Amino acid sequence: MMGDKWSGGVTRIVDAPAAKLWELASDFCGLCKWMPLIEECRRIQGDGDRAPGCVRLVVGTSLPRDDGQKSWITEKLVAMDPSARSFTYVLEDGNIDPLSSGYSSTFTVSASEQDSAKSRVEWRFEISRCETKNSREIIEFMEAVFAKNIASLVLAASELQES
What we know:
Blueprint lengths: L4 E10 L3 H8 L12 E8 L9 E6 L10 E11 L4 E9 L9 E8 L7 E10 L6 H28 L1
Helix pairs in contact: 1-2
């Protein structure tokens, strides 16, 4: 938490091969395949779901609003590195405070050096300071959301392996 930005993230060692996790997570507009509270995720701009410049619209209840309405955001893929199994995206617009200001995130998955059936998943974020919110509260909330989403990704990857 330095200066005008707050940052946080989650790192997990999980029981799933990196290739399967990457197959799901790198489909930038495929969140519905592994995030149960996302009702819609579709490309609204760009040349492909894995190409930098792609903009996705995400609608659902994964980030609750005080007024009970569905949340929506648009996010732009700014970097995709398949060899490092990493991508970075930024939030462009949305109806979720305080995320609607200066949010960026990087997702990375790597194979475990000790066990090929395990992977290391890291999901980091940075957000502009918000004068009306407590930094610890925002960071803990986002880290809990990321941890839950990583668990959902692992479950979806295991279902892919079984089919």
